[in-house]
Protein 1
Amino acid sequence: MGDVSRRSGFAASALRYYEAEGLISATRTPGGRRQFERTVLRRLAFIRAAANIGLTLPEIRAELDQLPAGRVPTKSDWQRISRHWRARLDAQIGALERLRDGLDSCIGCGCFSLQRCRISNPGDYLADSENAPGAALLPEPLRRPQEPRAR
């Protein structure tokens, strides 16, 4: 556990959580210690990359489920399952550029306190909206659902 934690950059608690969620697996020694195969480091790198672009745990699981069973994934396996990320990244880049360009006047929060705002909330109409919590007007590609953290 310690070696995989050190090499992957994930805390041991995160490794246990990902194992419980079925994203990685380990065998147990007769003494109960976890033993990870070397391929788990690649899966963890994939999990980190997928999370960094905004995939949720269910989406990451679905992607990892596409990997072949019984053999080490190849470069083409990884390319195949990550190919559609490009459109998602392009949408996030565009949203970030729009946010950057309007940052001095609006951050997409949905407030109604600024005199001039490209994205306005006149009369605080968002107060009664189910989308009101947080930065309600932040572009969709930048709005990640908050997931419970591993404990």
Protein 2
Amino acid sequence: MKKKKFTKRYRISIVEDTTHEVRFRMKASRLSITIGSVVTIFLILAILLTIIAYTPLKRLIPGYPSPQTRREAIQNAAKIEKLEKQMIIWSIQMENIQRIYKGDKPINIDSLLRDSTIFQRKSNIGLADKEDSLLREQFLKQEEFDISSIHTAKIEQIEGLLFFPPIKGVITEPYNPAIGHPFIDLAAPNNATVSATLDGTIISAGWNDDTGFTIQIQHSNDLISIYKHNSKLLKKTGDKVDAGTPIALVGDTGELSTGPHLHFELWHKGEPIDPTVYINF
């Protein structure tokens, strides 16, 4: 009985009210109307989903990320990765300071940084772990009774030092002593600020026909840094500077200069060393 009820055919007509003329006539059963309605709904949904998926209309959906949001997410992920690596480097440097304080041999940071797995092995290292806290407490206790013992101690190697980048630029000529280039050249905007890479004393600040305005800084641990081709010097010979102190402005001075850039040299015990090993430009 129920089957007949669904298959029983009905006539649907649309009649004009005034003339009673039949404008539309259709015969259908409840089953065919139900099936037709379901198919129509699915077709409408499919068309809507297709339009939303392949047109800019999808951006109108609440919560859907815009292209700018996706770009910012990618940039933020890259920044986080860079910060994580920097924290690992700081952690290694802190460990070196601990070793030096205890009289142990420091870790060679250069060899560690060449090992890409170091970042995976140390990804869970924090700057404020238990050992670091104990070391800080030990230093504070010593400072209460003998401040001079801390300040007079010298680090006899350079792996544990925290270098400040003189500028943020692009290395156009890398360190290569084999071809007579024991220094680096960094392209940077004209008049960009040049900063001291470590605490020290200005031992030379003046003009040279080949290298233009040049400044040299003597640091502790037999380190000397040299900055050439500046447009202007902000410090004079004899001035004491801290790491990060502005000392000059990037320029294009001297006969050997081919454009605005900083010629940067780093010397240790009379020998040139590669600045990129210790400084993140």
